[in-house]
């Protein structure tokens, strides 16, 4: 898993590392600075690996050290306005010194920090100075890495606290700086404890060549089927999601191979871009390794991460099933064939040559199942990546001692977006806690929804999409938990379902127009219109917008409650999303569907996705009627096969091998 707070294409730096951040890191202009960046990044990774193996120090010390490393790299890699002018360097150095100052002030005076009585002992002059510097540096550092959206949100919360409440400024500064309810709160702890280790795991997986395994594996099992390249994108992106929690990073890794291949076999460019973006976005909700916000959820709910992964399992499977059948029915409707088997790798050969690279993922999975902590499982899996790659000659090529160094550097760099987002989100949480804004907002939402859970869910979904347009998934989810989730719980939603609902809609913002960053990245690769690609993504992912509403009303889709009911709900919902895909694409079995058949399929889909024996029976009856009509009665003839693009460069060498 990489930082999903990095919603854009990876940026390759001269030293060979890859970093995914919204604002491209400017490469160090001299070797000395490059060496310093490498040394700090390696030290950061090794420190967190040591902590995962031997246990962390006290919470504030651990979180402060994590933030200290992150700030140092941010100001080395993200200079003022992307330049290296003398004034810019002076400002960068001053802000970095301020960052070191407010953290060391706590470290050096730690006894006073833990013995003081919060909100009673007055702040010293230095406490006040460093508290202000803490707020300024965290806002600026976050702006440099992920843009203005989250800092502006935090500033609005601060303005509200200062000018529209009775909270005194010294009390607010104490809350934000000298407590564990602000910058050094649990969100930063999640970045330090969980995200860093899983990002490192992803970096080691990348260096061991696992990405090629994912692509070859997907090619071998689905490439030859109808619409095969689209299904390759789905399978490879879902697998790559175990390594990278970033939707845009997934697009930029898989897209250059899968999108030209889809276009070559006849898929429309906007549809190809939509498939890749939707498939890549699902990486954040696909166990066993999900996006960073899932770890924050585990911290908020005080449950093991494995429990969150279990809740996410059925909705994630439904997500990819609906996408798979959308591609299948689109291909069948337009007569699109797959790639000839002669141009595809064979599954047996792929597994024999590279199959052992799946072992690190199994290490994480079994570690979580056996009750070991998520950071320790990720650490062990990361350590096994390179030795496993060295076992076979087919995966040994390109593995050098430098690969380990590069993985350590990339792991630290790719953590920066989440680290700064979590620190900045701490400002929001601090304000919400000290002002009671969460309670006020809950009352407002309950009032607007007029005691209707459905209306509150709609408001929450809209808020999640809007927040996700401007900020990464993790802070968007955190803001929703602070302001909206309590209202859902008050109106009767189960606590896990309310949190999962917020999480899913924060994730879905990556494919929801008008600001759909994953779609924009894929459309660029496909040379397609961004708006057309965005609406195609919204259309083929439509069932995913319905499923969260259903699991709020019936938590059995989250595997909560009786297992028999959960399995029946899963089976019926799977058939339901298939119906939805069939209705959207206008195809079922052998022929295009009439308008009335599509409308009946939509109705059947809603009835089947909603758990319940009565609705399931009605939905199955409707589906059976449409099946018989579509299969045996006269229907409109199939659309003529769409001619594929014949550009030879559209078939990548890797796919042809």
Judged by helices, strands and strand pairing, the structural class is: mainly alpha
* Number of separate helices: 32
Number of domains: 3
- Unreliable residue stretches: 5-24, 646-657
Strand content: under 5%
Could you give a short account of the major beta sheet? 2 strands, antiparallel
Number of DSSP strands?
A: 2
Average of the residue pLDDT scores: 84
Using only C-alpha atoms, the radius of gyration works out to 25 Å
Summarize the amount of helix as a percent range.
over 70%
Ends apart, CA distance between termini: 28 Å
Shape: globular
> Reading side by side through the largest sheet, how are the strands ordered?
1-2
Task: Give structural attributes.
657 residues, mainly alpha, 3 domains, two-stranded antiparallel ribbon
Description:
This protein is mainly alpha-helical and 657 residues long. The chain folds into three domains: 11-188, no CATH class; 195-321 and 333-417, no CATH class; 562-636. The protein has 32 helices and two strands. Strand 1 (11-12) and strand 2 (18-19) form a beta hairpin. Helix 12 (269-281) packs across helix 27 (530-540) and helix 29 (563-585) runs antiparallel to helix 30. The chain starts with 10 loop residues before the first strand and ends with a helix. Mean pLDDT is 84; it is low at 5-24 and 646-657.
Quick structural overview:
The protein is built from 32 helices and two strands.
Write the layout of secondary structure elements.
Layout: E1 11-12, E2 18-19, H1 31-54, H2 59-77, H3 86-108, H4 110-115, H5 125-146, H6 149-163, H7 169-177, H8 186-207, H9 210-222, H10 228-240, H11 247-264, H12 269-281, H13 292-301, H14 305-334, H15 347-354, H16 359-369, H17 374-389, H18 393-396, H19 401-413, H20 416-435, H21 437-449, H22 453-470, H23 473-483, H24 485-490, H25 495-508, H26 517-526, H27 530-540, H28 542-553, H29 563-585, H30 595-609, H31 613-632, H32 653-656
Antiparallel strand pairs: 1-2
Helix pairs in contact: 1-2, 1-8, 1-19, 2-3, 2-8, 2-20, 3-5, 5-6, 5-7, 5-20, 6-20, 8-13, 8-17, 8-19, 8-20, 9-10, 9-15, 10-11, 10-12, 10-14, 11-12, 11-26, 12-26, 12-27, 13-14, 13-23, 13-25, 14-28, 14-29, 16-17, 20-23, 21-22, 22-23, 22-25, 23-25, 25-28, 26-27, 29-30, 30-31
